[in-house]
């Protein structure tokens, strides 16, 4: 006669065995990811009826079919077709509020000295009216200063004047549109523990940390749907259209020096562009992954060597590469071959999430795997699932524990 405890143990065993054999349900998605209607065509279900060897990869073509026309000129693929025309107002070195400058007039102790461009964007010299400096070159400021000194009666003839930038101040720039983290970013400046004393003592200053590309990267980098042909920069009420496609082609381009109050807007083409999924000065600096790894044989991140170099992968990494990097692939074929991995992502244009799952061995075997191997995006998560054999072995372990508990009076 079975005891009540024994009956409970048998019930638990039966339930565990049934759950081990049950097929998990497919994930439900709002967007039609299974047919290529989500952010990436690579999300769609694998077509097992196609001849994988002879199939031409179609995902990039499916993605491109959704694209709106370029807002700027259509590229021709030649070096001269990228980069566009940069207005003179955006060329060269310009001043911003907070910049430290040195004004030098030979033999003059009244006006010579160090000055900080004021919050209102002007250079304020003693005894004369403030001189506009925000967004202007040092030569333009010098010309106005000379005119003010002569008209004020301080000089009868044109004096020799030098205006040198001694330090570029950090600036705040608003970045919106097709970037991963639209926000107001602060760029420029050097941390106190990295000050170069030799440069501090020298006349003049230079910086790359206040460039347009830095602002875009600090806002998370451009998204794959960005229209780089028509990036808008608004400065002092005037909007300029910039072509940044050269930044992804390895061609030289003018990296605009930003000033305080600038506004950047990156328009969207409304589609996923595979050719933007490469490291570049304006792409995300990398991708930090959220991983849920295997129970067997990976019992945790530390013993599985899942550290920072695994959780952070280069921009342009694909799903299968990350799954391998996360220790989800390999091992004994008899027990580990039938693993699968799930990707949790989000459409940055609509903010709607998507979940897809891939059989690791199916991806390994197919020649057209790239058609179903999505690119990873910032904030993506990966979960790995063990094979059926491993599931049964885990069930057996639990059943053994239950049986031991039942046997103990």
UniProtKB/TrEMBL annotation:
Residues 1-22 form the signal peptide. Residues 209-266 form the SLBB domain. It holds the Pfam family Poly_export. It is found in: Cell outer membrane. It is a multi-pass membrane protein. Residues 94-165 form the Polysaccharide export protein N-terminal domain. Keywords: Cell outer membrane, Ion transport, Lipoprotein, Membrane, Palmitate, Polysaccharide transport, Porin, Signal, Sugar transport, Transmembrane, Transmembrane beta strand, Transport. InterPro entries: Poly_export, Poly_export_N, SLBB_dom. Belongs to the BexD/CtrA/VexA family. This is Polysaccharide biosynthesis/export family protein.
């Amino acid at each position: 006669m079975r005891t009540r405890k024994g009956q409970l143990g048998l019930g638990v065993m039966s339930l565990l065995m049934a759950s081990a054999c049950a097929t998990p349900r497919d994930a439900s998605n709002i967007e039609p990811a299974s047919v290529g209607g989500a952010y990436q065509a690579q999300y769609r279900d694998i077509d097992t009826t196609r001849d994988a060897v002879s199939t031409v990869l179609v995902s990039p073509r499916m993605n491109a079919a959704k694209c709106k026309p370029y807002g700027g000129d259509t590229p021709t693929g030649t070096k001269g077709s990228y980069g566009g025309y940069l207005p003179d107002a955006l060329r060269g070195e310009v001043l911003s509020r907070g910049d430290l400058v040195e004004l030098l007039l030979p033999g003059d102790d009244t006006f010579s000295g160090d000055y900080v461009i004021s919050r209102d964007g002007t250079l304020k010299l003693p005894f004369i009216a403030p001189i506009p400096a925000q967004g202007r070159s040092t030569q333009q400021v010098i010309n106005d200063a000379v005119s003010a000194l002569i008209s004020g009666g301080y000089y009868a003839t044109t004096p020799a004047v030098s205006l040198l930038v001694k330090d570029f101040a950090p600036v705040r720039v608003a970045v919106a549109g097709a970037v991963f983290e639209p926000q107001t970013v602060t760029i420029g400046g050097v941390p106190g523990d990295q000050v170069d004393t030799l440069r501090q003592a020298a006349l003049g200053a230079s910086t790359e940390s206040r460039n347009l590309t830095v602002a875009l990267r600090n806002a998370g980098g451009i998204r794959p749907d960005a229209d780089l042909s028509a990036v808008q920069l608004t400065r002092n009420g005037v909007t300029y259209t910039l072509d940044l496609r050269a930044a992804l082609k390895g061609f030289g381009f003018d990296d605009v020096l930003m000033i305080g109050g600038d506004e950047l807007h990156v328009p969207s083409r409304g589609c996923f562009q595979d050719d933007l999924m490469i490291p570049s000065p304006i792409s995300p600096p990398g991708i930090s992954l959220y991983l849920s790894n295997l129970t067997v044989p990976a019992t945790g991140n530390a013993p599985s060597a899942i550290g920072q170099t695994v959780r952070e992968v280069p921009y342009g990494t694909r799903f299968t590469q990350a799954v391998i990097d996360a220790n989800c692939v390999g091992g004994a074929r008899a027990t580990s071959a039938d693993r699968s991995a799930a990707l949790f992502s989000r459409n940055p244009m609509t903010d709607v999430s998507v979940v897809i799952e891939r059989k690791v061995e199916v991806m390994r075997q197919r020649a057209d795997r790239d058609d179903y191997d999505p690119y990873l995006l910032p904030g993506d998560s990966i979960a790995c699932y063990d094979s059926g054999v491993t599931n049964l072995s885990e069930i057996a372990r639990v059943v053994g524990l239950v049986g031991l508990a039942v046997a103990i009076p």
